[in-house]
Design goal:
Structural class: alpha+beta
Strand order of the largest sheet: 9-10-13-11-12
Bound molecules: adenosine-5'-triphosphate, magnesium ion
Number of domains: 2
CATH class of the largest domain: Alpha Beta
Helix content: 25-40%
Length: about 425
Amino acid sequence: MRQSKLFTKTIKELPKDETSFNAKALIRAGFIDKVSAGVYTFLPLGLKVHNKICNIVRKEMNVIGGQEILMPALTPKEFWQVTDRWNNFDALFQLAGSDKKEYALGATHEEIITPLVKKFIFSYKELPTYIYQIQTKFRNELRAKAGLIRGREFSMKDLYSFHADEKNLDEFYELMKKVYFKIYKQCGLLNITYLTYASGGAFSKYSHEFQTLTNAGEDIIYICSNCRTAINQEIIKEQTHCPECNDKNFQKAKAVEVGNIFKLGTRFSKPFNLQYVDQNGKHKDIIMGCYGFGPSRVMATIVETHNDDKGIIWPEEVAPFKVHLIGIRNKELGIRNQIEKFYQNLQKNNIEVLYDDRDDVRPGEKFADADLIGCPYRIVVSERTLAENSVEIKKRGKEKCEMIKIDDVINYFKK
Ligand code: ATP
Ligand code: MG
C-alpha cells in the first residue's frame, strides 16, 4: 500500500477526554478514530490488525472443528426472558422496535444459540458440536475509559460447545485451554498471559480467565512464578502462598482479561429444553460450554504491552504490514524508479509493505511516522544505499541498522 494514498494520516491532536495509552497510541498513529466513549471506528490500518487477530482465532477454531455462523446483534426480549436475564444481565442495551417489541443489542449469545441448536440437533450421534461467531457485541459499560480495552461496542469471538455428558465437555474444555494459549502466542502475548481461576465462583472449576499482565489492566490477580497458577483477587482474600504448589512467591499484579471460558452445564439447555436422545432412546439435557475471546481488547492489550516512547511495536503476526518502506529523495526520477521496482518486488514475493512514497514529507517525519505506526521492519532506500546496491533494514524497537544487498532482501525475510 502506498502511504500517499492512505486517506488517514498520523495526527498530533488527540481527543481531550482520551486517557488510555492504547487509544492514544492507536488514534495518533491512525489505526482508530474515537466516535464516543467506548465507541471507535477502525481505520484501514486498524482494521488490518483487527482482521489478522480475528483470522488467527478463526483458523484455530476451524482446526478443532468449530463451525462459523453469524447471529444477529438485534435480539428479541422474549429470548432473554426464557433465561431470566432481561432484567439481570449487567449492562444490556435495550431498545424498542417499530413493532412495539423490545430488543436487546447482543451482549452475549447463549439466548440465540441454544434455541438455534434445538432446531437441528436431536441425537447423541450429532454430539459434540462446536459453533462460533466473531461478532460485534454491545454492553452499556459504566467505565468506558480504557480505550479498546473496554468498549461499549466491541468484538468478540464466542464459541459454544454442545456435549452428551460432562466428561466430554471436560475434555473439550481442556483442549480449549491449550488452543487459547496457541492464539495468545501468535498475538505476541504468550509469556505475559496467565490461566486464571475466574472471579465467577469460589475456586471455580467451571470458569477460567486468560489474564495478560499490564498496568493498564483493571483486574488484580495473584500469580505464582513457580507453577504459573493465577487467581483473580475477587475470589480470594489476602493470599501469601500458591494454593497449587504452595510456593511463597505468590504476587499481586494488574492484568486485563483477554479471554474467558465457562462450563455452562445445563444453565441454558434447561430453560430452552435443549435435549438429545441417547443410545437407549432416553431424553437427556445437552451439556454446554462457552468460550469468549475479545479481538479488539487483545489489540489494545498488544499495544499496552508492546511499545516504546516512539510508538507501537507490533508483533509480526498481527502487524498491519511487515515492512515500512521509506523512500528518500523520491522526487528524483532515477531513485524513484528503483524504489518503485523494489516495492513491486516485495509485493510479488508476498511481503506486506507500506510504502512511504510521499515526496512532500521530510525524512525525519517519515521515520517518526514509521516508529509511531510500528511495523516490525523499516527499510530505507536512498541515493546512498542505492550506490551500494543495498537497502538499510532496521527492526522496530532495535537500534541496529543492517545494510542488505537489494538482491538478498527476499531471502532475508524468508530465513
Ligand atoms: P470484564 O470483566 O472485563 O468486564 P467480562 O467478564 O464481562 O469482562 P466476558 O463476558 O467474559 O467479559 O467476555 C468475553 C471476552 O470478551 C472477555 O474476556 C474480553 O476479552 C472481551 N470483552 C468483554 N467485555 C469487553 C468490553 N467491554 N470491551 C472489549 N472487550 C470486552
Ligand atoms: Mg469474563
